[in-house]
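Give me the fold.
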Amino acid sequence: MKTIFEKPASIERKWYVIDAEGVSLGRVAVKAANILRGKNKPYYTPHQEIGDYVIIVNAEKAAVTGRKKTDKMYYRHSGYLGGLKAETYEKVLAKKPTMPMEKAVRGMLPKGPLGNKLYTNVKIYAGANHPHAAQQPVAVEV
């Protein structure tokens, strides 16, 4: 088999908008990660950045099932001894409404320089408004 190499100049980039209101957090993140990677294109290559741009609106209204609102924990560490911080989904949502969606999408992208670059192509907003109307994004159903 031959490895496909797509020239960066020949890649056509589109903008997509996903409305997360009432849709499962994970399902929105999977759809966004697949579009960011370019898995929806016939010339997908795992080691190249050929994906499109994604706008996620209403991120704070994404649904979580079961008791995840009170039981799901988000951890971070300060780097010091005993510096582990833990917060529930509800507290994180109250402080930073976009953070659960950001962490979900980020976790589904590859780790390393390629994943860092792909993550810059997603724009996440808590409300229904976004400043990317000039790019004429296409709505995606989840």
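Strands lie at 15-19, 53-57, 73-77, 84-88, 122-124, 138-140.
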